[in-house]
Design a protein that fits this description.
Elements lengths: L1 H9 L1 H43 L5 H8 L5 H17 L3 H17 L4 H21 L3 H8 L6 H13 L3 H14 L3 H10 L6
Helix pairs in contact: 2-4, 3-4, 4-5, 5-6, 6-7, 6-8, 8-9, 9-10
């Protein structure tokens, strides 16, 4: 019995398989270690970036360049969102919209799970639509209206968008959809107040 086991261990195919297994384990551990180092590096860059964003005198273009150096999507999402907020505070809405547009593309191309991607993209799209309302840009906003997931919150946002651009039938239709899904009485009354009624 022992001889058979020893012969099995001497089998060249077993030895090759064992060698490959050792190599794969070594590669996995190395990549895991590299990922941890990369995460640590990105976190340190995030702390430094955040400190620069807080300082009003920091050049916006310099921050943009620095934000492009982040490679992990989670960190990129944070720094780009900070940058977009800074652009909004400085009334630079075009830059804010461009940042969110790029974040939307990056989010779609990321390796996030479907549910996480959906939640993040929903937030990004909402920001893009609200910025387009402020920019009075119906066509750009409409592109993202069509990308919204169908839920109560988004129906209400859709209604706000159409109402701003005086497309009252579409607005009321969206508000009605929001009302169908809303259960909170206070929120229901608030949405009803948003609807536009004819004077006829």
């Amino acid at each position: 019995m022992i001889d058979r086991i020893l012969n099995f261990f001497k089998n060249k195919y077993f030895l090759i398989a064992l060698a490959l297994l050792v190599v794969f384990i070594a590669i996995y551990q190395f990549l895991d270690y590299q990922n941890k180092l990369k995460n640590d590096d990105e976190f340190k860059k995030l702390i430094s970036f955040n400190e620069k964003v807080i300082i009003e005198e920091t050049d916006f273009n310099e921050l943009m360049e620095e934000s492009d150096k982040f490679t992990i999507f989670g960190y990129k999402l944070i720094v780009k969102s900070l940058l977009a907020q800074k652009a909004i505070e400085n009334k630079n809405l075009i830059s804010a919209r461009n940042i969110y547009n790029q974040l939307y593309i990056d989010g779609m191309n990321s390796n996030l799970g479907r549910d996480s991607r959906s939640i993040i993209n929903s937030e990004i799209i909402e920001n893009i639509i609200r910025i387009n309302i402020q920019l009075d840009d119906f066509e750009e906003g409409k592109k993202f209206i069509n990308s919204l997931e169908q839920n109560q919150r988004n129906h209400e946002l859709e209604g706000d968008f159409y109402k701003y651009f005086k497309k009252f039938d579409e607005a009321n239709n969206s508000y009605d959809k929001a009302l169908e899904e809303e259960t909170d009485e206070g929120k229901i009354n608030f949405i009803r107040l948003k609807k536009v009624y004819s004077n006829d």
